[in-house]
Amino acid sequence: MRVVVTADPPSGPPPAPSPSAPFIVTAELPEDVFSWSNGLRSTHFPPERNWLKAHVTLFHSFAPSLRDELPRFLARIAAEFAAPPARIDGLMDLGQGTALEVRSPGMLAIREVIADHFWQMLTRQDQGGKKLHITIQNKVARDQALALQGELAPRLKPREFAFTGLGLHLYRNPHWDAVGTWKFRGKEHA
Q1: With bands split at pLDDT 50, 70 and 90, how would you rate the model's confidence at 128?
Q2: Buried b (16+ CB within 10 A) or exposed e, 32-63
Q3: What is the β-pairing status of strands 175-183 and 85-93?
Q4: pLDDT score of 6
């Protein structure tokens, strides 16, 4: 069950994670961009490994011990900030896959606020710089990735949108369980 929060976080804590299940934080896409990119993912991602919908990952692994603090903090950030503008500018070569490259200085600034607050808890992967993207193909042969990039690049036009909120998921290898979504509704621009 997915919880959409537009005001204060739920009164109770999110579902209890298993001792080793980390939390994943995403930047939520508007419905039109989600539908379009998810269609590309459904078409080009190897079906035997396509367990997820299209998404933009901000953080790959927050500790289960943050199950109370993390939702409260994400709710506070979403309440403070306005929806950050973004633009899909082209394709990103993943080596054995292809992604839509997303540019959003505002979302990266919001990510930095979250990273600063949880700095001591970040994994090495989440401490590094972040290139926003929506993976539409992964774990394929290099020639397949290059072929898709050659096919899509001439047809892909820049697409502007605004991220709608922050999402929190529990990693259940390989699936994700939705914990909550907090819509941007503030006035602060990142």
Answers
A1: confident
A2: ebbebbbebbeebbeeeeeebebbbbbbebbb
A3: unpaired
A4: 40
